[in-house]
């Protein structure tokens, strides 16, 4: 059986251009929330983990001293580096690294960010311990990720749908579990917020160019068969012809290393 890291690399190595053009990753409420939570003063040595094609790092770069952006997948790092050069951002450096094994010294950074990625991580508690290790005392950690509702039924449903669509998905935790894991890693939570990203077209999100028709239909059926009206409202489902739009709930946290 493939390891989580291998599945992630296999998945994202094929889709760097797809993510580079994704409005969900390029903008949306989660990007503004993470910038507001970070509240950079211009002097921070910053680490952006699982940068993907670099959108969070690009938004932070003009507001901090410098950014190191890491990702597990070399192709994503190469694409992010290309986009940074095109934008004239010369205070970002890039590194291929797993979130659970950061190649940096203890107490190296003033600010660490991670956006829309931990549901792909092999070991979230180890990732959080690594963030704690590389942060300086009083440094800030700002996280945003998709989360499951506080419902056993919907936790199972959402993770099943995500895994059907993308086998590199590991697990989307509810906010209560995120809070516990962050505190268990040694952090003190400063702020948290429930938010959303942009509405997504199902026909875009499900990636019919990659997933076979029977899988696309199984995911479509999961949306139509399982979700009662209150759950459809929770996922902001809006039907438009043969397509529909929806959004995952997101959770944002700012924590301090004390």
Give an overview in words.
By secondary structure, the protein is an alpha/beta fold. The protein has twelve helices and ten strands. Strands 3-2-1-4-5-10-6 form a seven-stranded mixed β-sheet, with helices on both faces.
* CA-based shape: globular
Task: Compute the number of strand runs.
Answer: 10
Separate helix tally: 12
Question: Ranges with pLDDT <50 over ≥5 residues?
Answer: none
- Provide the β-strand percentage band: 15-25%
The end-to-end distance, rounded to whole angstroms, is 40 Å
Helix percent band: 40-55%
Mean pLDDT: 90
Return the structural class: alpha/beta
Q: What string gives the helices and strands in order?
A: HHHHEHEHEEHEHHEEHHHEEE
What can be said about the biggest beta sheet? 7 strands, mixed
- Rounded to the nearest angstrom, the radius of gyration is 18 Å
Strand order of the largest sheet: 3-2-1-4-5-10-6
Brief overview:
The chain is of the alpha/beta class and 258 residues long. It is 41% helix and 24% strand. The strands form two sheets. The chain has a seven-stranded mixed sheet, sandwiched between helices.
């Amino acid at each position: 059986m493939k390891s989580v890291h291998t599945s992630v690399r296999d998945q994202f190595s094929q889709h760097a251009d797809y993510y580079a053009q994704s409005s969900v990753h390029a903008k949306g409420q989660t990007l503004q929330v993470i910038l507001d939570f970070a509240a950079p003063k211009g002097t921070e040595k910053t680490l952006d983990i699982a940068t993907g094609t670099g959108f969070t790092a690009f938004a932070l770069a003009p507001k901090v001293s410098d950014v190191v952006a890491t990702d597990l997948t070399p192709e994503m790092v190469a694409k992010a580096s290309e986009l940074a050069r095109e934008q004239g951002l010369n205070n970002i450096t890039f590194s291929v690294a797993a979130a659970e094994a950061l190649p940096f010294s203890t107490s190296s950074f003033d600010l660490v960010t991670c956006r829309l990625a931990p549901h792909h991580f092999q070991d979230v508690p180890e990732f959080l311990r690594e963030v704690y290790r590389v942060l300086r005392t009083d440094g800030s950690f700002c996280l945003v990720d998709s989360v499951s509702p506080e419902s056993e039924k919907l936790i199972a449903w959402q993770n099943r749908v995500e895994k059907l669509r993308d086998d590199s998905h590991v697990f989307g935790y509810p906010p209560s579990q995120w809070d516990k894991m962050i505190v268990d890693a040694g952090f003190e939570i400063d702020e948290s917020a429930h938010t959303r990203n942009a509405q997504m077209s199902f026909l875009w999100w499900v990636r019919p160019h990659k997933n076979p028709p029977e899988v696309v239909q199984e995911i479509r059926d999961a949306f139509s068969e399982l979700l009662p009206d209150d759950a459809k409202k929770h996922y902001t489902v809006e039907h438009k012809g043969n397509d529909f739009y929806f959004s995952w709930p997101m959770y944002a946290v700012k924590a301090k290393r004390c």
